[in-house]
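REQUEST
  id: r-88c1
  op: predict_structure
  target: Serine protease, S1-C subfamily, contains C-terminal PDZ domain
  payload:
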Amino acid sequence: MQSTSSDSSPLVQFSEGLAQIVERVGQGVVAVHGRRRVPSSGVVWRKGVVVTAAHTLRRDEGIEVTLHDGRTVGATLAGRDAGTDIAVLRLDGIDLTLPAPGDALSLKAGHFVLAVARGDDATTHADSGLIGSVGGPWRTWRGGQLDAFVRLDGGLHPGFSGAALADMRGEVVGICTSALVRGVGMLIPRATVERVAEELLTRGRVARAYLGVGTQPVSLSESWVRKMQLASNRGLLVNSLASDGPAERAGILIGDVLIEMEGSPCGELGELHAALGSASIGQPLRVALIRGGERLECAVTVGERPQRNGCR
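RESPONSE
  id: r-88c1
  status: 200
  body:
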């Protein structure tokens, strides 16, 4: 039997291919020093622009990044968005390699992927795994809209938040984060990063509409549904109000049950979010509610969500 050279083994070729992807992608991955001890990672997104996971930045000034060639340079925070966990840094006058762009919407559960990070000592770090599950657009618990739900098959090692996620073509489909779903590594898709980064570079923040209410879903009695001819038996109970927020100024009270926004049911949080697109800021929103067993309507002028406010 004729022996086969170990160099021509499919496993050796596969391993060498992975190493080449990591090396190529790693040229556009940096270490971000924006917190104590372990740095996070970041990805060169445009000329002079790096994106990273916003939750890893614990300060706004004095941020530095370590490049693939070992240089450490200062970076300026252009803006951050907690809703999507994206932060943008400017590196003026620094010429860096841009990784090949990929499309996160082409990913399927079971696809093999590589996470590429950079450590404190400028070494390239890599981790491999599978795409655990893929879904459509979704809204994070902080109110940010992601273009796709892409869950990795495990958690992320320290320093891998902000890392590049590459497919088997060596194309970067987005950045990794551990902050959007507890205990699970998630992908922030490239389309989401592009959209949010553009707004942060232009305005320094992401404008989001809000009413200034905290709510919880509740079931409505059948008598109320019949009496008010409601399309749904679900509503949103107002359990908190932002002081001097849009809802409070419009006369909404704690204990009211929201049932419609612009004539459409709002028995779930997603339906409330759907009515609050960024284009609605400054516009009147017709709200129907139940108070004391009676149906009332009011107009709420939609406000812009304060950057650190937890109300919707």
